[in-house]
Design brief:
By secondary structure, the protein is α+β, with helices and mostly antiparallel strands. It has three helices and three strands.
């Protein structure tokens, strides 16, 4: 079954996660949860999988008091260049 030319490929949840983490501002856990519909442990497991795949993920303290930890991809795997 082939897709029609007007239907773009569906974005996977892993691709959404990579996109959010690649932003300059990064993303916190609640943002990643709402974007994917995953539980916190699933988001953290997916980030662990990205690390194993060669992505470097930076963990930064919140900029303002009471904010959540911000995660950001700082570099990708060498094979993705």
């Amino acid at each position: 079954m082939s897709r029609s030319a007007s239907t773009p490929p569906r974005a996977t949840k892993a691709a959404i996660l990579r996109k959010l983490l690649s932003r300059k501002a990064g993303a916190n856990l609640p943002t990643l949860q709402s974007a994917t519909g995953w539980q916190p442990h699933s988001v953290r497991a997916a980030m662990s999988g990205l690390r194993k795949a060669g992505y470097a993920i930076d963990r930064a303290d919140p900029a303002k008091a009471g904010g959540g930890t911000v995660y950001r991809i700082t570099s990708g795997p060498e094979s993705a260049t």
